[in-house]
Amino acid sequence: MARLKRKLLKKVKNQKNLDTSKIKAKIKKELESTKTLEKQLTIKDGKKYVKTGVPGFDELFERGIPRGSAILVAGGTGSGKTIFCLQTLAHHASNGEKCFYMSFEESDEKLKNHMKDFGWDPEKLIKSGKLKIQRYSPFEISRSVEAMLAKEKGELLIDIEPVVLPEGFKPDFIVLDSLTAVASAFIGREDSYRVYLEQLFSFFETMGSTSLLITETKQIPDIFSTTGVEEFLADGVIVFYNIKRGNFKENAIEVLKMRGEKHQKKIVAMRITDEGIVVYPEQMVFGRIGEEK
Ligand SMILES: Nc1ncnc2c1ncn2[C@@H]1O[C@H](COP(=O)(O)OP(=O)(O)O)[C@@H](O)[C@H]1O
Ligand SMILES: [Mg+2]
Prior knowledge:
About 40% of the residues lie in helices and about 25% in strands.
């Protein structure tokens, strides 16, 4: 900024016969526009990113997952979605961030045992107050949404929290396992599910939490969520593949979309090991996997 001012003043000195008040006004204008530009750059450069801590995965991005975004974690059953999310939460909770796992499927006991299997100490993380795992019933959610909609006569519920979080707990990171389970409780009432989804996404956004929202798909998906609205509302989509090649099953992963960010656009190898998930960003999974169903 100071350098620009000097440069502009020098320009003024070199143009002695010009009307100085006009030039001063011009300098002021130029400096102001520079300030605006600087502000924009700070916002852009100051944009925060989160790393998952999953070895190899973060290398698929130039910068990372923008903090506060909502990401769909899509894939077939057994493709590693739950493990990936638990691993990310274990990483963030041990770094002192508040993490919340909302399970609409497995019990919290089962999830804790899952974590123990991979050597992530769930008891320690829970005791430190950084990790909470809570089980919800999708049917309870759909019933309360229906009841509220009936009361509001179908209008959008602006002030209603779509999930009840533990009191006083404002998570930095949320996992929802899974949107598919939530959707299944709304069968035949898709409009209510859409209202619920909109509420849910805006709730996460207001809280500023980064969220990973699991959706169950076919092993080689052609759609990534139950209604398509989920994809529309999400900032990013990560796809997990479980590919059968002869007698072998291979795991692979792809960053399908990440709004506003540069990322690798290829399906790469992934392994589930005793220590958790490892991604091989340089190891492309070749072949036309869509034809191997
Ligand atoms: N220690 C391990 N080593 C290798 N693979 C494992 C291990 N533990 C679990 N798995 C694999 O992970 C799969 C389950 O992953 P999970 O994240 O629960 O899948 P999803 O949530 O996508 O249904 C199992 O099908 C199993 O093949
Ligand atoms: Mg799962």
